[in-house]
Amino acid sequence: MEYIVETKNATKNFGKEKAVVGLDLQIPKGEIYGFLGPNGSGKTTTIRMLLGLMKPTFGSVRIFGKDIKKEKIEILKRVGSLVENPSYYPHLTAYENLETSRKILGVPKKRIHEVLAIVRLSDAANKKVKGFSLGMKQRLGIAAALLHQPDLLILDEPTNGLDPSGIIEIRELIKRLPKETGMTILLSSHLLAEIDQMATTVGILRKGELIFQDSIETMRMYAKQTISLNVSSSEKAWRSLLAKGIKAEFEKGTILLSERSNEKVAQAVSSLVQDGFSVYRVQEEKKSLEDIFLQMTKEEQAV
Amino acid sequence: MMGRLMQAEFIKIKRKGFWFLAFLGALGVVAMQMVNYGVRKDYLFTQSEDRWGYYLMNIHSFTPLAIVLGIVILTSFLSSVENETNAWKQIIALPVSKRMVYLAKFTVLAIVLFISSFLMGIFTLLYGLYLGLGEAIPSADLMQYSFYPYFASLAVLAFQLWVATVSQNQAIPITIGVVGVIFAYSASVLPDWMIWKWPSLMNEWNDPMINVWWGLGAGALLYLAGMLDFTRRDVK
Predict the structure, then answer these.
(1) Chain A within 8 Å of B233 (Cβ-Cβ)?
(2) pLDDT tens across B187-214, in order?
(3) Which value does ipTM take for this structure?
(4) How close does chain A come to B218, measured CA to CA in Å?
(5) In order of start, what are the domains of chain A with their CATH numbers?
(6) pLDDT tens-digit profile of B83-112?
(7) Whether B204 contacts B114, CB under 8 Å
């Protein structure tokens, strides 16, 4: 498979602190890659390494099959980005802000009007950015990232500060781009719901480590239903089930059955009853993606 | 690429009073003598046979101060434009080398300061003519007092730009700059090796040209050091 972004063992240390550890990111062409992780898990540090803003302590970063260390400028010609908070020059107008980037990128002037129209800022083109709301600044940042029609778009928390209608607009835009232009998009967020609605591939980062990387469908598979049993002396009951060869897990005083067919549930219940345990409740629980995400990113309990 | 980067830099300094400062600095130096000569012209005329020479010396007593102060303000200014919303990350993520970005900043500053020095020369000449200092205009001396301090101060410029671009906190370059201004003011008691002495054009051999060469030489070295340090650092 052709990977637009591929990192091998990318690691970044700040002094003793390990920000990103042994990251093997693989982003296929034309995908919307959702980069998920709680605050401080290393998303922005990773993005900075991808853009050559930071050098990895060790490991390699390849974009479009080229090494960022050797061909940074060639790579960046085809990458548009918005990192963390949007950067802008408050004393300049929206148009002038884009003009400073346009000069460097060397694209025709009409692109400025085009990208302003895309993010719906045409009316504010000649207003100073100082007076913009956070959402408008965010749109301006996205407009700047789109100026040179990049093949890879890297957006760090792109819907930050946007109002609901703005979020929907940007979401539609992000979904549209790969279809229309074949663009590959890397999208970071700490909100699963957002990634869920846009991404086709997901990578989950926890404490600087990539703990999951696969398609969103694979992740949804984890969202399967389970049957939970509330019984008396539950741990003992769980052991008795295991002794009879019924697959079950024990968690916080409830027994979770892995197999959900009617017969298996009936079998488990009758076995418990025969062994003299009282069955209080039999419930069907559906794990949401949110639960899975929380479970995956939950810090290990201190022993 | 360099040309386009510099055009971008010139857009960024719009409406920030950058050009006004360059103009004001040049005018300020001459304005000091306008006051001086305005108040006691007759007395000053008795001080020396060479009225033009004496006038230029008076002008030059404030030039180093104005140049060093100007450098401190303009460098800090130009890096604060980027620091304000951390726009460094946005420029560096564009397809340009960090070396070019640094060179563009330096060049813009050098140009603005040169224009300021040029303006100062013009103002000096005009006020000198207005005072009626004599028919023979010492054009060589006028050039020397207008442009030598500029070249002699390039080391200070390179140094201040280095400090200003790598400091997250702009209080650091400003503090160092204020100390530099004090140094420039007390040039006569400083040892020759200190870069802040050079704009005064004083040295133990009484040859202003030496300061020009020092300014260019040390300026180039400090520029390289600053650029390499800037390139090496991670962008936060």
Answers:
(1) no
(2) 889 999 999 999 999 888 889 999 999 9
(3) 0.88
(4) 29
(5) 3-221 (3.40.50.300), 225-286 (3.30.70)
(6) 888 899 999 999 999 999 999 999 999 999
(7) no
